[in-house]
Amino acid sequence: MTEFVDADAVLEPTLQNVLDQTTLKWIFVGGKGGVGKTTCSCSLAVQLAGVRESVLIISTDPAHNLSDAFRQKFSKHPSLVNGFTNLYAMEVDPTPDLSEVEGLEGEQGGFLADISTSIPGIDEAMSFAEVMKQVQSMDYSCIVFDTAPTGHTLRLLQFPTTLEKGLSKLISLKDSFGGMLSGVSRMMGAGGPGGEHMIDQMLGKVEQLKRVVEEVNSQFKNDELTTFVCVCIPEFLSLYETERLIQELAKFEIDSRNIVINQVIFPEEVGSSRLLAARVRMQQKYLDQFYDLYEDFHIVCLPLLEEEVRGPEALRAFSQHLLQPYQAPPAQQQDGAGSAGGGSNSLVEEMRRQVEEQRNRIQELEAELKAAKGS
Ligand SMILES: Nc1ncnc2c1ncn2[C@@H]1O[C@H](COP(=O)(O)OP(=O)(O)O)[C@@H](O)[C@H]1O
Ligand SMILES: [Mg+2]
């Protein structure tokens, strides 16, 4: 975390720093529910897909909504996002079914599920570890997490401890009941593995998953590999939650240096609405506080749109604002469009223009690349 920054320099109000840091492997996007985490994580993933070889976005939020955001059904396995060649998405089931943990037979999974009631969190830890094992074996350049709301977010960092507890529980079970269990299972006449053998297998499994989680957690604490992007809205509760989140991240030694403030209403767009004018004043108060509190963060403001941000095209357009500070279109540039308030039409026009610009840029770059390859 030793970054030498000119004290006078204001940090760029964009997420360009995340795109530029090509060593990043794990990018978390988190904050309270409803502030726009999914929208922001999807937008960021869309932008990353433009500069990294392959990107996977994983939702660990019980309220899955990658499918809603991209308007495409995803599952617990990565699938290619429509309209992309290198962006994949998957939604992890937050209520794990341990009988599905790979390497354990159904019966054992069930047994583990039973003992898990006596070790709080072990089921979640196991299923997270299983996902991470799977993800690590895949070859994505970077992985974006659309995380569960604050509070649950960092529980995963305690998973090695949870698994440690699970291991000692299993060992003590084995010591006290091992012989008896094999007797019982013989009595049940299943002809399956004896109780002791079963516990041994599970010990091995939990041990292996614990190693995965430990390895992953040490990567999470490496700021070359991992960063956490906080998403919030300019309101009191959200400011408060963000501060808590940032403190928690620091405690767990996880790098965070970007705050995305979503749903910002820009004064240019108030028009004659008294309600909007009041909202702008309220938001401004909290924006000022964000700027005061987080001088050493990149603070990125995203505009509140009139419509939801859904579908790949809407996300692509919206994602532009992560890189270019949003400028509410000034009235005089509206060439007779006459919308001094900058309503949704001018906004859509502006987005279209930006999309067009990016498309042209991509075409130019592709032509350059082709020429470079040819020469
Ligand atoms: N800046 C915005 N302007 C308009 N709608 C937005 C904006 N950001 C998010 N939304 C919409 O708000 C809803 C909640 O956003 P979402 O990203 O799913 O929040 P979260 O994941 O934090 O619960 C979605 O329908 C989304 O399209
Ligand atoms: Mg969400």
From TrEMBL:
The active site is at D61. Residues 199-226 form a coiled coil. ATP binds at K32, G33, G34, V35, G36, K37, T38, T39, E235, N262. Residues 25-323 form the ArsA/GET3 Anion-transporting ATPase-like domain. Residues 329-360 are annotated as: Disordered. GO terms for cellular component: GET complex. It comes from the Eukaryota. It holds the Pfam family ArsA_ATPase. Residues 349-360 have a biased composition (Basic and acidic residues). Keywords: ATP-binding, Coiled coil, Cytoplasm, Endoplasmic reticulum, Hydrolase, Nucleotide-binding, Transport. One of its GO terms (biological process) is tail-anchored membrane protein insertion into ER membrane. InterPro entries: ArsA/GET3_ATPase-like (IPR025723), ATPase_ArsA/GET3 (IPR016300), ATPase_ArsA/GET3_euk (IPR027542), P-loop_NTPase (IPR027417). It is found in: Cytoplasm; Endoplasmic reticulum. SUPFAM superfamilies: P-loop containing nucleoside triphosphate hydrolases (SSF52540). One of its GO terms (molecular function) is ATP hydrolysis activity. Homodimer. Belongs to the arsA ATPase family. ATPase required for the post-translational delivery of tail-anchored (TA) proteins to the endoplasmic reticulum. Recognizes and selectively binds the transmembrane domain of TA proteins in the cytosol. This complex then targets to the endoplasmic reticulum by membrane-bound receptors, where the tail-anchored protein is released for insertion. This process is regulated by ATP binding and hydrolysis. ATP binding drives the homodimer towards the closed dimer state, facilitating recognition of newly synthesized TA membrane proteins. ATP hydrolysis is required for insertion. This is ArsA/GET3 Anion-transporting ATPase-like domain-containing protein. It comes from Chlorella vulgaris (Green alga).
